[in-house]
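Record format v2
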Amino acid sequence: MAAIFELQDISFSYEAIPAIRGLTLKIEAGNRIALLGANGSGKSTLLRILDALYFPASGSVKFKGDALTQERLQEEEFFLNFRRSVALVFQNPDVQLFNPTVFDEVAYGPLQLQWSREEVILRVEETLQTMSISHLRDRSPYRLSGGEKKRVALASVLVLDPEVLLLDEPTATLDPKSQSQVIDLIQHWKGTARTVVTATHQLEIVEDIADRVLVLEAGAVIAEGTPSEILSNTDLLLRANLIHAHRHSHGGVEHSHPHLHGHSRHEHEHDHEH
Amino acid sequence: MSRNATRNSSRNTSRNSFLESTLQGFARAVSKALQSEQAATQPGLLQQLDPRVRVLGILALVVSVILCRRPEAIAAIFLVAVALAVASRVSLTSLARRVWLVVLGFSGVIAVPALFLTPGQPLFTAPALHLSISVQGVRTAVLLVLRVETAATLTTVLVLSTAWTHILKALRSLHLPAEIVTMLAMTHRYVFLLIETANQMFESRQSRTVGILSGAERRRMTTRTAGVLLSKSIELSQGVYLAMLSRGFRGDVRLLNDFRLQPRDYVSLTAFFLTACVAVWMGR
């Protein structure tokens, strides 16, 4: 299968603080990947490198076999093709929704990529309908709820029909219904050519959104596998700070066990009498 | 209760109410913005017109106010502005509170010296003070106040009858540089987010405040809030810039103009320009 992204031994630092260390990764077309890691593990930085917003200090990044560098992005054809093909949904929707109305927000990307006026209007209307947000078209983003903002943020990149979708904590801070809508959307792309890379620390959604999981710690991949392989490895999850030892008591007997926040299907056995 | 006790009590209440009044201020700012947006969606005369016609028409009237030299002509345009407000369902009470009284206060301060300093035929003299008011002085003061009141009324009627997004799009289609329009749009977009953030910071502070805050504490708190807001706004602007880059921004701002002129827009624009021209001719 053709590689969409090839990252070879890349490193990136914020001033003197390393965020990505010697990371090597290959992403193929149609992959649904979850980047798992605690806060500060480098997930968001990696997504920004994949979206060519940050460039690694060392190592190389290739997009469909071409070097992804600042110099290449100066070439108009490469720039337009890359920005149309790869889209990032930011963790904080307020960062992404900077236009006066929802319609303008969804139209922003196509306009920057020099689509014709008619095509922009047609695609925006279609996307608003697909995302069930047509009724919000003239609303200002500051008057939207958290779930609505997330849907508009998704619509603002889906309008481009990108090949690669990078999602940074797509379900964080959403209510259960909005979370479910976002997960349904990602599931809908299963089996299509669309590549989806999702950064999250919510273990309960991993099986629904990914076929392959990378666990990050301090800017490096410490494990890779299928969702069931990763989620069943308690030691790994403890090491990556994705679960923690939870202490509580039953009938006056105190004990501790690994604990997954928000994992609805979590069960554990007790080795003491109640 | 002694006079000192009363004074202390009132001072304490004012100190206690510092947080509450700040929070109320934030709530008022947001509420006013929401009210303005609601007025812009009312079925009124101006609301039915293309936003570009509204902007150009009001601009023509404001220019005519500046060019008029006779108070009678400006007063006539003021009446037109009030009629436009009524026909566009803009509350006159709101206009009086937000514009007329405020403008009267500011322009009045500037106009009062003109009463005494403009030479001309004396109208009233105060012998003890050696001051006299001239007919020309009164005319100058009235002209100044009337001019500012009318221009402010016209622009407020435009703002209250037009969604901010439409004003920006109209300005862009009238060839105001895209960079300026984008800056104005983003300022409007994020000012509410920062107000909300400041509001949450004050609420959080209020929930942990027991007793009375001294003047120094209040000043420190305000300074810290301003500092945190500044750092948050810098962080936000960096994020917004990355989000713009991610969706294809390369330095040139491209906006969509989806306005379409109707026959009534041409008629209205002609009426606006005719009124402005007649006012300038009468007021020369």
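The first strand of chain B starts at residue 122 and ends at 126.
DSSP finds nine helices and two strands in chain B.
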